[in-house]
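pasting for ref. prot 1 ->
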Amino acid sequence: KTFYRHADLVDIGTPAIYGPEATATKLSLLRVGKPGTHTLMMLHETYEPGADTGQRLYSHEGEEAGIVISGQIEITVGEEVALLGPGDAYIFDSRRPHRFRNPADVACILISACTPPTF
């Protein structure tokens, strides 16, 4: 399949990715691409106010990058912490422990890519 409508995107379920401490009801990760079929995965990510992938940093194989479309997101990668807003971007080796958190009072939307797809 080449083209996907928004309704076709698969919500990959944040508790399965980040663990039970993630605020799953406040996170949405809609996937394009899948392990075993593609070498690249893209996500349409929505972090509602207060959303957090958990205080415990997580890691996985691959490299990831993203651009904030709207709102703000606080990203921790190892010892580095940054608050990013619209147009800001990131890229890092996903084996480095990381965390995403929305400390703002409005939703944050970002588009990210990960290679290879690991979930």
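and prot 2 ->
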Amino acid sequence: MEREALEAGARQILLTNLRRGVADWNGKEFSFVVPSLRGYPFQWFWDSCFHAIALTHLDLDQAKAELTTLMSAALPDGFIPHIIFWEMEKQPEFLARNIVGMVSPNYSSTIQPPILAYAVERVYEATGDQNFKNNSLPILMAYYRWLRANRDPDEDGLISVIQPEEAGTDCSPKYDEVLGIEDLSNQGFISALKKVYEVYQPLRGDDKKILETNVFHVEDVLVNSIYSFSLRALARMLGDSPDAAEFNKEADKTRDALVSKCWDETTSAFYDLSGTDESMLKTVTISSLMPLILADLPRQIVDMIVEKWILSEEEFWLPYPLPSVPASSSKFISGNPGGFIWRGPTWINTNWFLSHALRRHGYKEVAEAIVEKSYEAIELSGYREYYNPYTAEGLGARDFGWSTSVSYTHLTLPTSDLV
């Protein structure tokens, strides 16, 4: 398939998955791309950020609308939910198949990896729209301050997630111990998650009290890498101001905490921390690589991760890299038995992050190989939610929005990616 055909396919998916209207429950206009027509009928937080970045190459007005719609769901305290049910008539069918913690029938009560500031910066760079940036900045500042105030109780710079879906990596084996999963299957995961939800139900809306239960209190490496990465983007947009200094300081604090608390030199990997005692969850997954997205990660750490994990054919360097779990793991599953996801398949969004990161750190050939193999997987199986890392068989949802982001990784990197 020619590169032009891939881009045409990406355009078709993004525009076909577009939803516009006025929400009955708040009277606000919405304009956003659903992740997939099957199974994902609403707006998901980090999916929309990827959609907006891809849309900067197709439709600048829609790229702005995507993020404006997402930010319009911000609550007065700064919180932005990970799912917004703009079209309520689709909610009963969705909730019948999914368990979602809510304090309102209109949106979830949880977060997702906080890539929003970076997405806004990318859209601003593409459009030059000063009004878009100026309107976004107060919402972004309130959001990242909300995360710091509500999700970092020990004030160490690492924010916590209260359930697996918040990290976007759902059934990852790194959570098996915390959840106490007895049956290693999707049904076993759901059963364990329901127990967490039962504890949370009377506390929903008070994240500090939820964290105090210590039921699922995880300082997640992937989430915090994206948090620091995006704080830096927010600071850049704020220019030379006290607010910029505040967010740069927080980005530094998070980076330093990742290195001092989550890095394990003996295994050359980063690990999540669990509970108020911050016990290290020593399961290597794609999250263990994610601090590479930080431009100021110490060079020695960068090289150790790349050499030991990324370039090893026994670990992450499979025929279609990078799998979500290294092949050497006893919990590696190349497919998705019953929807038991993030336990082996390759995901385009993490490839997008890490290919850009590797290029920034000077591993240009490695980055280009990941991109080319991602293209090849799409040529063989279409734009799918994730792929078998050995065969490139497409798995999960079809015509998946964020997988279109790989179609534009060959283009010149924006200024923000070169910092």
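The longest strand covers residues 18-22.
The longest helix spans residues 130-151.
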